[in-house]
Please model this.
Amino acid sequence: MVLAAAGYPGKVRSGDAIDGLAEDGQLAGEGTDLVVFHAGTKRDGQRLLTSGGRVLGVTARGADLDEARSRAYNGIGRIRWDGMHFRKDIGLRGRT
Model:
């Protein structure tokens, strides 16, 4: 799933502080079943900020699509910044 900045896909806002990620830019305690990919991020000292339209990608594994989807959206629920938005329908068409 892609987490986008305020204004995406048009004129995006940069510089919003991203909360919810550990120091290494991942979600604490998730191991390898959930990975956060950085696309539009930058560091400002200890803070992680938005710096593009598509800011983060969150990918999860599970025993099936429903479990992977649930893990990804649970992870997304722990990440926050002003103006963050994402699609809520990813993976629905592939469900059995």
Q: What stands out?
A: The chain has a mean pLDDT of 93. The chain has one domain: 2-76.
